[in-house]
């Protein structure tokens, strides 16, 4: 069976606050031939872990890397690595994903009102401009 895992399934694997659902999520992913994880689900996962569960960025990055390195998991590695690069630098995973995806689709400059995101992306060599 080839499956696509929703964010709430990923959360159950990372956050042990519902033992029954966690066990079911683990069994389902172990039994699958492949588990596709959308970058959108990873953006949601990062956001929920940080905002709702107060997880440290280091823990969020570790969870995403764990999924990436699981034998039967399929992710868009380049875009996920771009998100992790910004997360590792102290920013938001989604900002790295958005900037990468924008470049992929022909965008030349990342624009935002978010000073931190612009600064981090510029520091990584991405054309970025703060709107003010």
TrEMBL record:
Keyword flag DNA-binding: yes
CDD domains tied to this protein: PIN_VapC-like (cd18683)
Pfam families: PIN
Species: Sphingobium chungbukense
Keyword Cell membrane: no
GO MF entry, a single one: DNA binding
Coiled coil stretches, renumbered: none
InterPro entries, per database record: PIN-like_dom_sf, PIN_dom
Protein name as catalogued: DNA-binding protein
Keyword entries, A-Z: DNA-binding
Stretches assigned to the PIN domain: 5-116
């Amino acid at each position: 069976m080839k499956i696509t895992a929703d964010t709430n399934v990923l959360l159950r694997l990372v956050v042990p606050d519902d033992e029954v659902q966690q066990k079911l999520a683990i069994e389902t992913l172990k039994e699958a031939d492949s588990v596709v994880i959308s970058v959108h689900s990873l953006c949601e996962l990062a956001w929920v872990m940080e905002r709702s569960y107060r997880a440290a960025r280091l823990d969020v990055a570790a969870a995403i890397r764990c999924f990436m390195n699981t034998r039967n998991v399929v992710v868009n590695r380049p875009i996920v690595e771009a998100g992790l690069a910004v997360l590792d630098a102290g920013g938001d995973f989604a900002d790295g994903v958005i900037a990468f995806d924008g470049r992929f689709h022909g965008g030349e400059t990342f624009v935002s009102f978010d000073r931190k995101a612009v600064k981090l992306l510029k520091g990584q060599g991405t054309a970025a401009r703060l709107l003010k």
